[in-house]
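User: Fold this; tokens only.

Assistant: Input:
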Amino acid sequence: MIYKRSSQLFVEAKKLIPGGVNSPVRAFKSVGGTPIFIKKAKGAYLIDEDDNKYIDYISSWGPMILGHAKKEIIEKIMSQAEKGTSYGIPTELESELASLIVSNIKNIDKIRFVNSGTEACMSAIRLARGFTGRDKIVKFKGCYHGHSDSFLIEAGSGAVTFGQPNSPGVTKSNAKDTLIANYNDLKSVEKIFDKYKNEIACVIIEPVAGNMGCIPPAKNFLESLRSICSSCGSLLIFDEVMTGFRLSFGGAQKYLGVNADIVTYGKVVGGGLPVGAFASRHEIMDMLAPEGPIYQAGTLSGNPLAMRAGLETLKILKNDLEFYERINSKTQRLYEGFLKEINYTGIPCQVNICGSMLSVHFTKNYVSDFDSAAKGNNKVFKDFFHYMLSNGIYLPPSAFESYFLNDALTLKDIDYTVEKFKSFLKKQL
């Protein structure tokens, strides 16, 4: 494929934007090469600046669950734009979207909209601390909750030690209140609570991890977290920025059968426009300003274009009774196709799946946490990414990211992807 125009644009972008991108994964640092620049998208396909066409398996990292440029969504956004793009004043749309979400999530009473998943998770942590009167939080190694200071922390010498900053600009004083456990490792959580249980405001977790690849929770792991938090007076926060309205209309809570105290949303709830949200029961949410003392605000929060896009997206998902069965079936077809070729060639490779999320890891052992994900063969992954890209298939340009399938994908797209996966594996023999 020709990447002349994309390469030129990347050179120019680097002069004006740090690294040439506005989110690091886009720079292809982990896979090498020059990132492609997209000029348009429709359905399941991306078109780059050199007019190359790709089957899209990231769906803008999750939001485009219906596919790109869905006619019904675009028409609603355009109609709303004619009425104004931002007011900074309440609209009925905010309440409509709030009602649709709250009425379909059993354990929440109120929701507040923000502008990103980072904002949602940051605000949820502040709310948990304010509600409990405690300072410390527990997060899991490899789980990503945005780029707020509290989350850019990873383990020191062990799971029970205070975390250490892993980004310049994050202070040690901030890091000391973040405790790191290992995903799918209940004992690491129990050790932390044994030592700090009266100081822990909350546990925040991706119920299905999506930033070390797609990694589902182990049996009874989330249920045990729920029990620990309840017994110790800590709040359980589910970061459902990825999984909310993707795994099911009730999100991971419904899909996995475990309720959290606070839930954060993003991606799908914005219908492709920037939106985040956090939600909980009355007594917790009523602590927020202007009703309570915990401050949170945002000039563009509840933006009418985003509210309209999110509202129409969720309406389509709710009214299409076969939607989740259909998109999960497509993902299962991709999963089974990959497994068949792996088993045939014997190449060390693992494929994880949960609903319409999936990831490929070139390693011989099952991937259940960040450390096992990190053992994947990065050279093979790089070759795999670029081979698929050269064949018109856009995959996550990092071994630590999940695929997000969209409903516009056809069975022909899926089968073509499996065929190219087969061709790649044969090249490794």
